[in-house]
Design a protein that fits this description.
The protein has four domains: 82 residues, Arc Repressor Mutant, subunit A (Orthogonal Bundle), CATH 1.10.10; 89 residues, D-Maltodextrin-Binding Protein, domain 2 (3-Layer(aba) Sandwich), CATH 3.40.190; 96 residues, Periplasmic binding protein-like II (D-Maltodextrin-Binding Protein, domain 2, 3-Layer(aba) Sandwich); 118 residues, no CATH class. It is flat, with a radius of gyration of 28 Å. It contains 15 helices and twelve strands. α1 crosses α4, α2 packs across α3 and α12 runs antiparallel to α13. The strands form three sheets. The chain has a five-stranded mixed sheet with strand order 4-3-5-12-6. The relative contact order is 0.08. The chain is α/β, with parallel strands linked by helices.
Amino acid sequence: MKISTFDLNLFVVLNAIYSEGSLTKAAEVVGITQPAVSNALARLREKFDDDLFIRTGSGMTPTQKTENIILDVKKALDLMQKSVNEPDEFNPKTSELTFRISLSDISEERVLPYILKKIKKIAPRVSIESYQFERKDFVHALATNQLNFVVDPVIPRSKDIKHDLIFEDEFVCAHRKNHPIGDEKKLTMKEFLSLKHINISNRRRGPSLIDVELEKLQLKRDIALRAQHFMVTPQIVKNSDYVLICSKTFAIKNNLAFQKLPIDLPKVEQHLIWHSSDDNEGPHLWMKDLLIEAFAVIYAEKFALSIGISEVIIGLTILALGTSLPELAATVSAIFKGKNQMVIGNIIGSNILNLVIIVPIIGIFSSAIMPIELWERDSSPLIILTLAFTLIMLFLSRVQMPKYLGTLLGFGFISFYMIYVLNLSNLISIF
C-alpha cells in the first residue's frame, strides 16, 4: 500500500474510534457526522482488509490488527499536530491543561493535597482528574491520553511504557492497640492464621500477594471482610479484633499497632508510570517532577515515622520546608536584586496569609477543636518571636544595620527554632 494513495484523514478517524470506543463519540471528537465516520471506517476496512473494530456490548472493540498499528498511528498524528502548531513553551502560570492520573485511595489522600497546594501557587488554572483504572487498561489509557500518569505497584508489560520507583516500604500486620497479639514479642504463623483478616481488593475474587505466598505453603488465612479501599479500614481495625496487612507507614500514620509478619513478602512498591510518547513534552515533564516531589515528601515522612519522630516534628520540619522552599527561593532572589521591601513583604505576607486564610479554611472544613494543651505549649514561643521580630524591625528602621548584626540575627532566629523543635521532641525542656 502506497502512502500517496492513502487519505491520511482516515487515521484521525481510526484514532478517535479507538480512543472513544464508539462511532457517535468519535464523530463528536473529530467534528463530523456519524455516517461520515461509518464511511471512513468502511474505507479503512477495505484498505487494511480487516474489520479493525467489532461491535460488542461494551462498544467498538479493536481487532488485533488495530492494536498492532494504533501506537504508530498515534505517534504519527502527534508529530503532525506538533508540526502545524507554533511551538509554545509550557508556562504553568497561564496553562489551562487538565492532567489525568490513576491513583489508589491511599495515594489520593496523601498526594493530592500536596499537589493541589503547589498548583494553587504556581499553576492556578491547571486542573487534576483522578481515576482508578483497571490494570489491564493502563497501556491503552496511557496511549490514547485518557491518562497522563499511573501510580501503581504493578508495571504494565509494554515496550512503550516507562516507569520510576517512587516509594518503597515493608508489609506489617496492623491491629488495634491492646489487641491480644500485641503482647507477643513475635507473631507466630499459627497465631497469624487464627486471626480475622481484612482483605483489600477492587476485584470480586482472586488472591492477594500474601494469599499467594501462603498458598505456596499450603496455608490459608481467615478473611472475614473484603473491602475495596484502604482508607475505610483504620476505624474498623481500631474498634474490632480484625487485622490488616498494610504498609508500615500506613499503620503508623493511622495510629495502629502492628506486628512483623511471620512470612517474608516483597516490599510495598509504588511506580510512576507513563507512555514513552510523552517523554519530551513540557507539561508532562512538569507534572512528572511535581509527582516525584510529592512522593519524596511522603518518603521523608515515612522515614521520620519509622524512627519514631512525631507528626508535630514532621510538620515543623519536613513538610514546612517542602512547602516553604518556593518562598525561600523568591526571597533569596529578591535579596540579591536589592529588593528589600519585597523580602520583608514576602515574609510578613506569607505569615498573614497562613493566619487569615489557611487557618480559617481548615476551620470551615473541619470540626476539630484545638486542644488547650496546644495553646499552652506554643503560646510562649509565639509571643516571644512576635515581640522580638517587632522590636528588631522598629530598631532596624532607624539605623543602618552592619553586616555582622544581620548575621547574628540570622543565627539567633535559627537557634531559637532549633531549641523549639528540640523542646517538642522532649530532648530538652525550656517552654
